[in-house]
Specification:
By secondary structure, the protein is an all-alpha fold. The chain contains three helices and no strands. 89% of the residues lie in helices and 0% in strands.
Length: 129
């Protein structure tokens, strides 16, 4: 019975079961070997489940990190695009404002020149030599 049960166990559990069997002085044909096999298989199963759970946890964490990174990259990209668009709009607005100021200055200068010319012509017309 002992050898058949030990064959079914993974190596680490086999060593643990053998230590327990020696500690409790189990005979090769003792039915307690069934309990030892159950305990060894249970330990193996628990370690496998723990490993699987840890891997699932790590996978979930990596997935969340990837989503977070993607979100940050998307926000950075959107911020850069918005900044570029804002700069372009500001440049357009500044150009339009400069053109408006230049037009107003030209009109004002033109009006002032006309007024001066008109005033000068009136003064010349009213002068007597």
């Amino acid at each position: 019975m002992r050898d058949e049960i030990l064959k079914t166990l993974p190596a680490p559990e086999r060593e643990t079961v053998l230590k327990l069997a020696n500690e409790f002085e189990l005979r090769d044909d003792d039915p307690a070997w069934l309990f030892a096999a159950l305990a060894g298989n249970w330990k193996s199963w628990m370690e496998r489940e723990t490993t699987d759970a840890a891997q699932a946890h790590e996978s979930a964490v990596q997935h969340i990190r990837a989503q977070h990174k993607t979100t940050i990259e998307q926000l950075q990209s959107a911020t850069a695009a918005a900044s570029s668009a804002a700069k372009l709009e500001l440049a357009k607005a500044a150009k339009t404002a400069a053109e408006d100021v230049a037009d107003a200055a030209a009109k004002s200068a033109d009006t002032a020149i006309r007024e001066l010319a008109k005033s000068g012509a009136q003064q010349i017309g009213s002068s007597t030599f």
